[in-house]
Amino acid sequence: MQKKPYWSGPKKPMGGGPRGKKNRNQKGGRQQKEELAINDEIRAPEVRLVGDNVEEGIYPILKALKIAEEQELDLIEIAPMAQPPVCKIMDYQKYQFQQRKKLKEQKAKATKVVVKEIRFGPQTDEHDYNFKLKHAIGFLKEGAKVKSYVFFKGRSILFKEQGEVLLLRFANDLEDYAKVDQLPVLEGKRMTIMLSPKKQTPKKKENPATVKEETPDAAQEQAQE
To answer: Which CATH superfamily is domain 33-105 in?
Structure first.
């Protein structure tokens, strides 16, 4: 077997960017989508630098790369569509961690739509109706949607008009708490109505400046009258 010739030249860098190119592939070798360009991947002739560790302004790309290299950090193109592109100098892995954390916080703050179901029979009695009405009010106050339906079993489908009347009464009794998203619709053996909570308008606080404070002298005068 022929031996490979010995190479005495400079070795390949192992790190990322100015410190060597980072391995930015997902598990399995698939490249992540919508990655930001970093270091020598940035093609613009000049960039706008921002951040705490640099003097903000427009720099030639080579100068910006040199500043990043001197700080042993990465040049990250955070706004590629700007003219010129906006770049930030920081550790790329730290930047990714911050972005994932921010996205997680945004998802946590996003309003989750909760739908609560309330089932009726076509001949629901008054006690059961009021019990379910009370539950629906509680759900709506919590900000949940209410999907109410009448289930027709067997020959009870003959009473579908009665089921529609029941659902419309239900919506009418909840008009202070809900708005109707969908009027009663028959789908198979179910007639369904969808309700969303109304935004509760906060009560106006009384302006302290308009409150007339009664002094002891004034109270005494009123008592004498």
So the answer is: Translation initiation factor 3 (IF-3), N-terminal domain (3.10.20.80)
145 and 194 in contact (C-beta within 8 Å)?
yes
121, 150 contact by CB (below 8 A): yes
Looking at residue 113, what is its pLDDT? 78
Residue type, 163: G
Nearest residue to 161 (alpha-carbon basis) of 187, 191, 188, 182: 191
Residue 129 has pLDDT above 80, yes or no: yes
Write the pLDDT tens digit of every residue in 143-163: 899 999 998 887 777 778 888
Question: Any bridge partners for residue 79, and if so which?
Answer: 86
Handedness of CA 14, 39, 93, 80 (dihedral sign): negative
Under 8 Å CB-to-CB from 85, ≥6 apart: which residues?
42, 44, 47, 48, 77, 79
